[in-house]
Design goal:
Chain A is of the alpha/beta class. Chain A is 43% helix and 12% strand. Chain A folds into 3 domains: 17-227, NADH-ubiquinone oxidoreductase 51kDa subunit (Rossmann fold), CATH 3.40.50; 236-332, Ubiquitin-like (UB roll); 337-432, Up-down Bundle (de novo design (two linked rop proteins)), CATH 1.20.1440.230. Chain A has helices spanning 17-22, 27-34, 37-47, 59-64, 89-96, 98-112, 126-141, 172-179, 208-220, 222-226, 259-264, 293-297, 309-313, 316-319, 337-351, 357-374, 380-393, 401-425, 429-432, and strands at 75-80, 116-121, 157-162, 203-207, 229-230, 233-234, 237-243, 249-253, 278-282, 291-292, 327-332. In chain A, β5 (229-230) and β6 form a beta hairpin. In chain A, α3 crosses α6, α6 (98-112) crosses α9 and α15 runs antiparallel to α16 (357-374). In chain B, strands 2-1-3-4 form a 4-stranded mixed sheet, covered by helices on one side. The longest helix of chain B is centred in the C-terminal third of the chain and has 18 residues, at 148-165. The chains are: A alpha/beta, B alpha+beta. The interface between A and B is large, with 57 and 41 residues.
């Protein structure tokens, strides 16, 4: 498979302008500036590119919603607040191929008419701020940023804004609030940022990987890009794989490979360490439903499951999951689903902005109950109570953090209820060992 | 006296210039980072009031932001802060053992600082290093693939660097 984003990541000095340019960098800016902004938007529409941050919304369509009132500035903001547990692909791109993001942002800024674009990066990625600022300075010295870029009459500046530790700022309206110097409380939509965003001006917020993907789209043309992949999962996707696998890391895939191949082939995760069995996996970042091994590798209909938007979602939440952000978390047979779910509940309680009561209160209740169950102090009725709480959070909050907190708990109970019950019924034993695979027979070959 | 040097004041002006006229409040988060680095690793009420004055906003606008984001310390912290990730993917790779080892080694609990003011231990939520777990943030950088031996080496390195700076 030909890589589109990480093709050159191994080249010495690719982080710097000279090596990047020598290897074909910034061609897409030269191409785009000869087209009209609308023609660039058209290419992105044709490519079928879907937002790589987690929601998977078609990028070209998002761009076409941007309001263009006369005399009002428009803004492009890159969402580099990567904070979804299991996800570290944007970090990889920015750290090793910063110019790819800058190039994608210049082309996208031109398409959207943004003369001042921002990269909002999570505060903890402090050293990457320096890498990006150097890349911006180099691009400017070489005439790809600043006034009248390549004599086209288009002016553009890119600035890096550091966050300060808040998962919620990955939600686009919270990100805009934060960029305005406020608490990251999500806004009620509508109005959508495309109409009223940063400083009340029309704004597009796109993920790092999405903006980087604009480069190959312009270089090869939207139609060619759309030929890669399958169905509505076009192009390539970065997957950050972690947990109990032999080769954790960031992989670029073309969305036609099976989940089984991704986990077991040496090209990707390289299988599970120490000959252990696969127990479960969260395939798209901590918010998406966890799947037991049997449902991960095959759909409920018994078909092979593939690493793409449609196949991972096959069966809905009853027996499927989501592509999400591509944060692929693998659990081996020794891992405890209750404990893992508890760490996620702690995460969401910590990260709830506190604006909506179902999320503010509910995430804390779920954490408390899970803590009791994990530590052998739970009751059987607690499992139903947890189910009830998550159901009342989902869909009842301003932003999707409520859903993101509810789904992992719901899926853990849906697929691993016997493990929760075992914790309640064996309060002492669950302190010494994990439930393991005892209740799941051979996880890979169990019939659905 | 809580005052930036001329260099730092120039940096503040450079940050403000990133935004359109009149939108200097957007500089708040970056300027608070600068203030925390400059004034002892935490934000005292005096520091926050000073930042409010610099950006011509009300002190409450600074307090509400400083209390929202987890990277701002509202109390003094040790010279070296170990921020160890405890979220799922790190837990799967043994972050519990690392946290317990640091507690034992430094004789402090989570959220505490050693008596000599050298180390603070903090647990944090996912830092985006899941593939290189277990991990911690130390100052500006990440320390990844942690083992007990690596923790020992990091503590030693901090002590040496502190001694060299004294």
């Amino acid at each position: 498979m030909k890589k589109l984003l990480l093709e050159n990541d191994h080249i010495e000095g690719i982080r710097y302008f000279d090596a990047y340019r020598k290897n074909g960098g910034y061609r897409s800016v030269e191409t785009a500036l000869k087209l009209s902004p609308d023609a660039v938007v058209e290419e992105v529409k044709k490519s079928g590119l879907r937002g790589r941050g987690g929601a998977g919304f078609p990028t070209g369509m998002k761009w076409s919603f941007l309001a263009k009132p006369e005399g009002v500035p428009r803004y492009l903001v890159c969402n580099a607040d990567e904070s979804e547990p299991g996800t570290f692909k944007d970090r990889y791109l920015m750290e090793f191929l910063p110019h790819l993001l800058i190039e994608g942002m210049i082309v996208s800024s031109f398409a959207l008419g943004s003369n001042r674009s921002y990269i909002y990066i999570r505060g903890e990625y402090a050293w990457i701020v320096d890498i990006l600022e150097q890349a911006i300075a180099e691009a400017k010295q070489n005439g790809f940023l600043g006034k009248n870029i390549l004599g086209s009459g288009f002016d553009c500046e890119i600035y890096v804004q550091r966050g300060a530790g808040a998962y919620i700022c990955g939600e686009e309206t919270a990100l805009i609030e934060s960029l305005e110097g406020k608490r990251g409380n999500p806004r009620i939509k509508p109005p959508f940022p495309a109409v009223k965003g940063l400083w009340d001006c029309p704004t597009v917020v796109n993920n790092v990987e999405t903006l980087a993907a604009v480069v190959p789209i312009i270089n090869m043309g939207g139609e060619e890009y759309a030929k890669i992949g399958v169905g509505r999962s076009t192009g390539t996707k970065l997957i950050s794989a972690c947990g109990n696998i032999n080769k954790p890391g960031v992989y670029e895939i073309d969305m036609t490979i099976s989940v089984e191949e991704f986990i077991y082939s040496d090209e990707y995760c390289g299988g599970i360490p120490n000959g252990k069995k696969l127990k479960a996996c969260i395939p798209g970042g901590s918010s998406v439903p966890i799947l037991p091994a049997n449902l991960l590798l095959k759909t409920a209909k018994g078909e092979t499951r593939y690493m793409n938007y449609e196949s991972l979602a096959d069966g809905g939440f009853a027996s499927g999951s989501m592509m999400g952000s591509g944060g692929f978390i693998v659990l081996d047979e020794d891992q405890c689903v209750v404990k893992h779910t508890l760490t996620l509940a702690t995460f969401y309680r910590h990260e709830s902005c506190g604006q909506c009561s179902p999320c503010r209160e509910g995430t804390g209740w779920m954490e408390k109950i899970l803590k009791n169950i994990e530590h052998g102090k739970g009751k059987l009725s607690d499992i139903d109570l947890l189910w009830d709480i998550q159901r009342r959070i989902e869909g009842n909050t301003i932003c999707p953090l409520g859903d993101a907190a509810a789904w992992p708990v719901a899926a853990a109970i849906r697929h691993f209820r016997d493990e929760f019950e075992w914790h309640v019924l064996n309060p002492e034993e669950c302190q010494r060992r994990n439930y393991g695979l005892a209740g799941y027979a051979d996880p890979i070959h169990v019939p659905v | 006296m809580t005052r930036f040097s001329d260099d730092k004041l120039a940096k503040v002006q450079e940050i403000i210039a990133r935004y359109p006229d009149g939108k200097q409040k957007s500089a708040l988060i970056p300027v608070l980072h600068l203030a925390q680095e400059t004034f002892g690793g935490w934000l005292s009420p005096e520091t926050m009031d000073y930042v409010a004055e610099l950006l011509q906003i009300k002190p409450i606008e600074v307090y509400e932001v400083a209390t929202f984001y987890s990277m701002y310390n509202l109390k003094p912290v040790g010279k070296y802060m170990f921020e160890v990730c405890q979220t799922g993917p790190c837990m799967l790779r043994g972050s519990d053992d690392i946290i317990n080892y640091i507690k034992e080694k430094l004789g402090i609990g989570v959220g505490e600082t050693t008596a000599d003011g050298m180390f603070t231990l903090k647990t944090v939520e996912c830092l985006g290093a899941c593939g290189y777990a277990p991990m911690m943030q130390l100052g500006k950088h990440y320390r990844e693939h942690l083992t007990k031996e690596k923790v020992d080496a990091i503590i030693e390195e901090c002590r040496k660097s502190a001694a060299a700076n004294n």
